[in-house]
Write a structure and sequence with these properties.
The chain is of the alpha+beta class. 29% of the residues lie in helices and 37% in strands. Strands 2-1-6-5-4-3 form a six-stranded mixed beta sheet. Strand 1 (28-36) and strand 2 (41-43) form a beta hairpin.
Length: 139
């Protein structure tokens, strides 16, 4: 039996793959602390997360998909290990599109309050590996 936190996390990933950022963040509290550690960026509201972070990945790769997710219940957190796969067909920060495909392993934690709302998250991935796959950095 899957915990409610795992169900919310899994539904968020499904919503990302459908590009339904409203659905992805519907269980988020009004104020969050969601950090992309590779980029060193923290988002403080669901709106900022929806308007800046999520579309940034889709702009860089219009076909990006979360694949092979595994979820772990960690009490007031849910942990997911997954890959994203896509084609670099749009700008990624200062880098123009390369047209190259990539596969990137990620580890993500969603943090929940006592009512079950998402109050934050932490995302970890190897940004150097991504840039090397795209030919933007030597292997």
């Amino acid at each position: 039996m899957s915990s409610t936190n795992i169900q919310i996390h899994r539904a968020g990933h499904a919503a990302f793959n459908e590009r339904d950022f409203e659905a992805m963040t519907k269980e988020y509290a009004d104020h969050i602390a969601w950090t992309d550690h590779a980029q060193g960026r923290t988002f403080r509201t669901p709106q900022e997360f929806k308007d800046d972070f999520l579309p940034g990945w889709v702009r860089a790769s219009s076909d990006i998909r979360i694949t092979d997710p595994r979820y772990l219940d960690a009490g007031q957190a849910a942990v997911s290990m997954f890959t994203v796969a896509g084609t670099h067909d749009g700008p990624l920060g200062p880098f123009p599109a390369t047209g190259k495909q990539f596969v990137l392993a990620l580890c993500e934690l969603w943090h929940f309050d006592e009512t079950g709302q998402v109050i934050g998250g932490d995302l970890y991935y190897d940004q150097v590996s991504l840039l090397a796959q795209l030919g933007l950095m030597p292997q």
